[in-house]
Amino acid sequence: MLRAGNALRFTPDEIEAFRKLGLDFDGARTQDDIDQALAQWADTLNDERPDLLEKIAVEMAKARSITLPARLTRVR
User: I want to staple 9 with a disulfide (CB 3.0 to 4.6 A). Which of 2, 36, 56, 57 is the partner?
Assistant: First the structure.
């Protein structure tokens, strides 16, 4: 990823690597574009594979040596 002020550019190889993870950064030109793509990816992952999203969150928390908040459950 290349940065020039607020503008971002990805190489074709980076775009392809992100697509393999399910992330679509094609057309992303700002940090806000990336944030929106990540939010959409997390929402989709939460809908389709919440167990996998939780594993990712746990590993990210471990990497930063932080604790996750207590897990919330939905009540209908």
Answer: 2
